[in-house]
Records
---
Amino acid sequence: MNAPGAVLDIRDLTLSFATSKGPVTILEGVSLSVGGNEIVGLVGESGSGKTVTALATMGFLPPAARIESGQIDFEGADLLSLDEQSMRAIRGRRIAMVFQSARGALNPLMRIGDQLARVYQIQRAMPQRQAYREAVDMLRRVGIADAERRVRAYPHQISGGMAQRVLLAMMIACSPALLIADEPTTGLDVTIQAQMFDLLKDIQAQTRASVLLITHDLGVVAETCRRIVVMYAGQVMETGDCLSIFAQPRHPYTQHLLSSVMRVDRPVVAPPVGGPPSEALVYAARGCRFAHRCPIAIDVCRREALPRISAGPGHDVMCHRVGEGYGAAAES
Amino acid sequence: MRLLGLVIRAQREIVPSSERARRSGVGTVRKRRLLASGLVVAAIVLGAAALGPLVVPYGPVAADPELKLIAPSLSHPLGTDTFGRDILSRVVHGARLDLGIALSVVALALVLGSAIGTLSGFYGGWVDALVMRVTDVLFAFPSFILALAIAAILGNSIPNVIIAIAVAYIPYFVRLTRAEVLAAREMEYADAARTVGNPGWRIMYVHLLPNCLTPALVQATLCLGWAILDVSGLAFLGLGIRPPTPEWGVLVSEGAQNIISGQWWTSLFPGAVIVVAALGFNLIGDGLRDFTAREER
């Protein structure tokens, strides 16, 4: 599993939040890796722990969070063991993150050019004038027409799509090795979303940075990513090649997730299962968290820790039933 | 009937949004008038402080024993005091001193208070706990009593008065800024600033503080009014600024002894000026508070 040459390698990350009712396990045994020069999609419904995984990588966990076990290896160092000083040296320069709401991620009282130029000033110790020139160039690279004029705009004067481009420009300004994009198109309309993902792919190809793309949009994943990681309620359910997972999803959760995507060429296949993960299950000690919604769950699913079953090259499924051979031949 | 209802609803829909905001909201005409009158008063007081001393006919301490305690007249519109000094001239000169002190007090309290509040809100933990307990202690005393005590300890001089009153006001700015920073540091732009490698002090004072200043600035205008009251109050009690300096509180206190003998003007006019000036800044503060509260919603 320890992928050779991985830029980011999260291993067995278990993390809990302190609440008034006691600690709640938010991530349980999450393992995922992002190789060099690839886009990995991290998918799952709201509350599945996608964003917390990203925040843990950035060192942005809220004070209530506690790492129970696990490692986050990045370029040979365990990020969880670094102090704030060392993390600051890595942030921006080696890892950057595009946030959900671009407009919220820009300081409303600062011109966008100043914000962008400041990245160069901080990270590269560039003089102001040169940093400003770089900023204009970078804005042009992310497809902002009229960049010379736009650098003087304040965030409220630009559109949501443009704000997202500016944020992306800020984040790739110092050519980081890893870019985490946390639902980077939330709140944008569909055509702009498509443009953003095209831009993300272009930028990735140019900079050869690795990208961890967090999203719940499977269509986007299919078009953008090479590998995907499916999460549910803080556990990784299935991980593998985009092609093989879309062609042959093995985990019951992945199957339901994929069949929930509306398509014109077929009726809805699987009936919807259950509701969102219940509050009670985050206190559950071990076992599969999808079990209470899973149509094929058996007792062992609720008791035993998840196994990791290989379902092909680079395709792993965390499911007891798949381990017993369920679905191996039944798939169409 | 049904049709009529639909028409009325449709008409309600097409009322322009600015009109609806004006009708529904806090920014009613009355409130705006109060804000406007506050601004007018403040402008007059500031104008008197800036230009008045060049215009008034007499010096602030020019005494003329021949003309002592004369009632308001054309040559002395507000009358003269026991030493024959022109009260109008003294009041106008006092504007410069009182406003200067009030502005310095508020500037000092705003700068220190918001800086400490930002630190406290940003770092949390024991820093926050310590700062909050100290402000609790300061809040336990009425601000005037606190300023009185500090001024008594520091001794009589203008800088000491400024420090004494500013210390009494700092807790307000600390609390207001801290509350805003607590909310703002959860905003994505704070995370984004960290993501690109900004050090902590830079996130605090370049990114967070400017976005958190609105309530503190409103408080600052309110405090200008209070500061005028406190400065003149201290001087009236003989702390801080002493006679013969033309300060409003000093003027009231000097004139107080003449009231029983019938020379009401020596105290009344300086006192009225204090009230009007303090009221003016308070009206501005109140008006701005409603205004910004609506803007931020």
---
Amino acid sequence: MSESLEKLQNRILSDAKHQSEETIKEAQAKSQQILEEARQRAQRESEDIIAKANVEAESIRRSILSSKVRVNRLRILDEKNRIVEDIIHSVEDQLSSISKSEQFEETAQRFVTEAVKAVDTDQPVVRIGFRDMSKRNLDEVSKVLPKGGKLVIDEKPIDNLGGVVATDPEGKVVFNNTFKSRLERLDNQLLTLISSTVFGE
Amino acid sequence: MSGIDAVKKIVETEAQARRIVDEASSKAQQIISQTREQAERIRQEAIGRAQQQREEILREAKSKAEAEALQSDKETEQILKTYRKLSEERKSAAVSKAVELILNA
């Protein structure tokens, strides 16, 4: 009786120990699994952070560079504009003093002829005004007017730079052949010509 | 030993066995709980390292871009210098051609 009781006690304790060992083993296994999953999750999250950082870095790089490139393009454009403006001012200076040149009479004649042709009338009224223009300069100009035409001489250069304005007798048809209007009409060609000459473009 | 004594012994032994099992269960819970804390630490440390790496990547990108921007400035200065030189050399020709265009177009 006593021996079998002792065996039973031992068996009960042995079972309990075995059960507790299993419980601990399971906990340790689960623990390993939790750690492994945590490592994998941490790895994924880290990779995600790095991947996003690389995208963000590229975006920062592009932003800095595109901003700089934009600023520098504007600087180049400003410089080209400054150069072109400077050349146009010199052109205006030369044009406004054309009356001193040998070309003047021929040019004035041609401007008048063009303007008269444009208003297309037998009795054109032609205003002419160049800086420092003398009456002597205009003798030849009068000859290109039709018989019914009238030449009006402005003492001051028309539109600041000088030129010719023709109208019909009623003043309804006007053709402005001043240097200023010619500069405006030929604006695109002028810019192309200056750019190609200076910048080779 | 009487039957009652034997039953008492068995009851005591079973109580002892239950304590052993309960202790193991408690220890197992403790292991899991500590492991979860350790797992969170591992995760936080990894994220912390990744964040530092991120800061470094962004710093490097900014620094590299600023160096490239500086290069763009140098190239622009060179272009401006070239334009100024061309302007000095060719201004006279450009003015003549432009005057010719306005007079004869």
